[in-house]
Design a protein that fits this description.
With 309 residues, this protein is an alpha/beta fold. The chain has 12 helices and 9 strands. α1 (14-33) packs across α5 (132-145) and α2 packs across α12 (285-307).
């Protein structure tokens, strides 16, 4: 994967997904044991943030430090790109200074254009369409808490068809998991993403299903997953979206139909009492905060694999 971009899990092979997970496990073990792993010594990552962040900034910045490199926080307001400089010119300039770029922004097309003109690896830290780093993290967490063998497991997502749903579709399809999203009528995933994921799933024995009934989705699920009802940029719609999604909550009643050994994941931040009940979040907080920590280890693996000499 040296020199490659990571914009979407759809662009990865199944073997590459597992390679990222294996390297993440190794780097996590080394970090826990205090073993030096300066794979990116002397390297510099530029981090472009046009959306606010807690976990993405911390994990990439700390990750680069632990890998022996350095990271530069670049606010979209501080860059010339915020004053109208073309994305392709910014990409060309940054390619002369940096060894890699992580971008967290709104339009997925902006990340694709940046990657087209950059001569260094570009990592998608989040767009309105996709959140690949989070889902690779989720797969690692499922391995740790459920099974090293992901193929055949069922993951049920409850809520909005957002960037998490799209990347979970891709991630589950690549490893042969069965993914079901329960969402209100009229709320549909991106048609192109859905079609791509269905084709990927056919190759691995997985499946992709969209339903409206949360109990149908959660029945016998090994993993239940949710995210906030109003994503970044939708804050003004929060009250209206609460009305639309009020019945799409992971709570104790829904957990009764899932597999007895089921786990719950949430990419955070969580709005307790909305998409997830306080009781369920606290019951599964050990898994959810392992998931949050694993952002560090997975993103270190991505940076090491794409930026190493």
């Amino acid at each position: 994967m040296k020199g490659r971009d990571l914009l979407s899990i759809h662009d990865l092979t199944t073997e590459e997904v597992y390679k990222i997970l294996d390297v993440a496990k190794d780097l996590k073990a080394k970090q826990k044991a205090g073993i030096e792993h300066h794979l990116l010594k002397g390297k510099t990552l530029g981090m472009i943030f046009q959306k606010s962040s807690t976990r993405t900034r911390l994990s990439f910045e700390v990750g680069m430090y632990q890998l022996g490199g350095s990271a530069l926080f670049l606010s979209g307001h501080d860059l010339q790109i915020g004053r109208g400089e073309p994305i392709k010119d910014t990409a060309r300039v940054m390619s002369r200074y940096l060894d890699g770029v992580m971008i967290r922004t709104f339009a997925h097309s902006d990340v694709e254009e940046f990657a087209k003109y950059a001569d260094i690896p570009v990592i998608n830290g989040l767009t309105d369409l996709l959140h690949p780093c989070q889902v690779l993290t989720d797969l690692l967490t499922i391995q740790e808490h459920k099974s090293e063998q992901l193929k055949g497991l069922k993951l049920a997502y409850i809520g909005d068809c957002n960037n998490m749903v799209h990347s979970l579709m891709y991630g589950c399809a690549k490893v042969g998991m069965h993914f079901v999203v329960a969402t209100p009528k009229g709320c549909k995933p991106n048609a192109d993403v859905l079609a791509n994921a269905v084709e990927d799933a056919k190759k691995t024995g997985g499946s992709i299903t969209v339903v409206n009934d949360i109990y149908e989705a959660a029945k016998d699920a090994d993993v239940l997953y949710t995210d906030v009802w109003a994503s970044m940029g939708q804050e003004e719609e929060h009250e209206e979206r609460c009305k639309i999604f009020k019945d799409y909550q992971i709570n104790s009643k829904l957990m009764e139909v899932a597999a007895k050994s089921a786990i719950v994941l949430h990419c955070l931040p969580a709005h307790r009492g909305e998409e997830i009940s306080e009781e369920v979040l606290e019951k599964y907080q050990d898994v959810i905060f392992d998931e949050a920590e694993n952002r560090l280890h997975v993103q270190k693996a991505i940076m090491a694999l794409t930026m190493c000499e």
